[in-house]
Amino acid sequence: MDSIIFDVDGTLWDSTEICAKAWTDVIHRETSLSLTINASTLKGLFGRLLPDIASVLFADYPKEEQLRLINRCCQEEHKALLAQCAPLYPDLEKTLQQLKENYRLFIVSNCQAGYIEVFLETSGLGSYFEGHLCPGDTGNAKADNICKIIQEYHLKSPVYVGDTLGDFNATKTAGIPFVFASYGFGQVPSPDYTIHCPGDLLNIF
């Protein structure tokens, strides 16, 4: 193995409390919906593509308005996360520091453009990662973005660390091993490896 590609939400941090408040503020301000988003709601939705999340939350609105509203939610969450870093999972920086001594580190997430940059800035962890991609950058879903990272950075033997079935399926499409972050938001039936905190990666690799 020469490299590790990480998911963000449910793998590196849990932003759901902060994002839920930001999204709820947008909904109450810009719609007539009596809808309050909570962290549990977002944990069930994060990992999907944004248009799919929008179609769930704003099902009564036309597609164009769904996309406008989800984009507004994302804008507000960026502001909120830059003002207050979401909780990082235990010993994350220490783990990344040790992993970086032997492996190249990357991020691929199913998020909007700018979200990974917000994570890297507000967490102060930008120096540990060599590159990143998301659908907001490329228009492509996770499997294609994993493949693009592999090709662009000439990775020979990467693994992917994520927390949802969608992450697992993307790695199977991309043809690389999957490390299941069991402390995250989802369930995966048969991962290649399982970790219970970021530091467990040091025991695997």
UniProtKB/TrEMBL annotation:
Keyword Hydrolase attributed: yes
GO MF terms, alphabetically ordered: phosphoglycolate phosphatase activity
GO process annotations (BP): DNA repair
Any one Pfam family match given in the protein's UniProt record, by short name: HAD_2
Keyword set, alphabetical order: Hydrolase
Protein name from the UniProt record: HAD family hydrolase
